[in-house]
Amino acid sequence: MVRFGFCGCGGFIEKAVLPMMMRVEKAEAAAAFDMNPATLERVCGKYNIGKKSSAFDELLTHQDVDVIYVASPNVFHKEQVIKAAEAGKHVFCQKPMGMNAMECEEMLSVCEKNNVQLGMGFCYRFQGAQETVKRMIAEETVGKVTYLHFSFNLGGYNPETAGWRCDPKLSGGGPLMDLAPHLIDLMSFLTDKRVESVMAYVKPEWNETSIELDVETVLELAGGIRASMDISFVRGNMHNYTIVGNKGQIRALGTMCWNNQIPGIGKGKLFIEQGMESEEIDFFTEEHLEKELRLFCNALENGTAVPVSGEDGLYVQKIIDAIYESGRTGRRVKI
Length: 335
Hints:
- Helix content is 35%, strand content 27%.
- It has 335 residues and is α/β, with parallel strands linked by helices.
- Strands 14-13-12-11-7-10-9-8-15 form a nine-stranded mixed sheet.
- Mean pLDDT is 94; it is low at 260-265.
């Protein structure tokens, strides 16, 4: 059994993670900390979490906690991951890993020094559609891939609806910190290629008092593959992507949702398009947050590397840092 101590009990943890953890036989929600006492009481009561901590340092003292699940505002990730590692706890950190790549490098170094594993919350790669697309790319179902386009827009995100995610001092940025980590991870997961350079449009420019709201980026991947990404807090809601090969294309519509086995929430659709012909592709999927947790727990119990590592988190943050730099300078930035 892998026993988790939660750092942060916000809506994502309460409505998405904890319901799925209850379905993972090897996982147990053993303890929790939240800065809001009412939230802490409600979530612990709802999910029968026995140990409630009023301070983060107190959470680290529980001997029957194996993993600290960091789901706090981004600005706290570095300190909390480092403290957890120094207390001998493994860590599962929600994206983004840190406020910048320098923070991520320090977090990785401390985890390695203390011989603890650091896993990252890039859950969408575990959704069945993405696993099917990865297989089709490897099998050259639409030929050799030359281009990818990703859209992830959450129109209406603002301080009233999204809270700390729109506070630059807590989040470190807007959609680049909230949405882009998933897309950058998927680009590399699907193609097995790393990003080599970026050219970006970032508006308005991030500063200490306001976040960016709208981003368009062109990314050059190894092997001559080009990708583009649009993310926004002001455009209409969507999460779609297209994989273009020299014999056709694959379109994924709405496959990046969570809790897709809850009634009323779909799992999205996949299409292969060649010329004027379009064919919908069936795919098997289990809830990807559930699968993410199951694989993470299996790795800890078996003493193997976690499926999405801190190195993956650092790589993604380097790309995000480069996009901010490109948006600020108007120049292509090499990774």
